């Protein structure tokens, strides 16, 4: 990985005139609107970056965006990668490794998720304060490079408490309904059955999705403070469960996205 990472980072530096981002951002399904807030200086297609995995989803753009957001230098992934696309966990999290090598000191992650908590409704936001990982493999599986992080990284506080508190204050000040809760990561791409939704609620989940946790694990491995937020795009309540389509999920995400963008933008300005 070290050689591949070196090649990737050197290519990015050449193409961006050694742009040094302070903050990394991962934008989830239907949540690319934050890019419109960035004063874009450089854009790189994933397909042109050596060793970089390519998003196979038609609704994920597949670009690295470099620029300034509220006077902070940022690099944003417009389109993330998923285990269900066939990539290994190491490939999925390779961009986070590259961001760290480029200089980021904080990571902000967004996703679209299904609500498991009856008090959390479709269109609401949820700041992630913990997670349960039900995906089948850790991105840290295999030999460990101690220059990147320890063999057994601590995960007692995977999401930065200070950033969580600040985000909730921002939401309250802007009259945005925003919860805190536990995110459960599953493999996908299929959505869950009634019995599975019930199980996920019983074990402590407030929302369920198919991403985020691998990136968060790797960020913690490299001692990067993380903030993550979900747009709740559907409701996995077994007692009233109805079929949901991808189009509905994306539409709900797009409607709620401006609220998420406001929180992220203002939160980034505090750093």
TrEMBL record:
CDD domains: PNP-EcPNPII_like
Gene Ontology BP term (one): nucleoside metabolic process
Ranges for domain Nucleoside phosphorylase: 23-268
EC category name: transferase
UniProt xrefs under Gene3D superfamilies: Nucleoside phosphorylase domain
Example of a GO MF term: purine-nucleoside phosphorylase activity
Record InterPro entries: Nucleoside_phosphorylase_d, Nucleoside_phosphorylase_sf, Pur_Nuc_Pase_Ino/Guo-sp, Purine_phosphorylase, Purine_phosphorylase-2_CS
Keywords: Glycosyltransferase, Phosphoprotein, Transferase
Pathway the protein contributes to: Purine metabolism; purine nucleoside salvage
Any single GO CC term annotated in Swiss-Prot or TrEMBL for this entry: cytoplasm
Entries under Pfam families matching the protein: PNP_UDP_1 (PF01048)
EC number of the protein: 2.4.2.1
Oligomer and partners: Homotrimer.
Functional description taken from the UniProt entry: The purine nucleoside phosphorylases catalyze the phosphorolytic breakdown of the N-glycosidic bond in the beta-(deoxy)ribonucleoside molecules, with the formation of the corresponding free purine bases and pentose-1-phosphate.
Family: Belongs to the PNP/MTAP phosphorylase family.
Annotated protein name in UniProt: Purine nucleoside phosphorylase
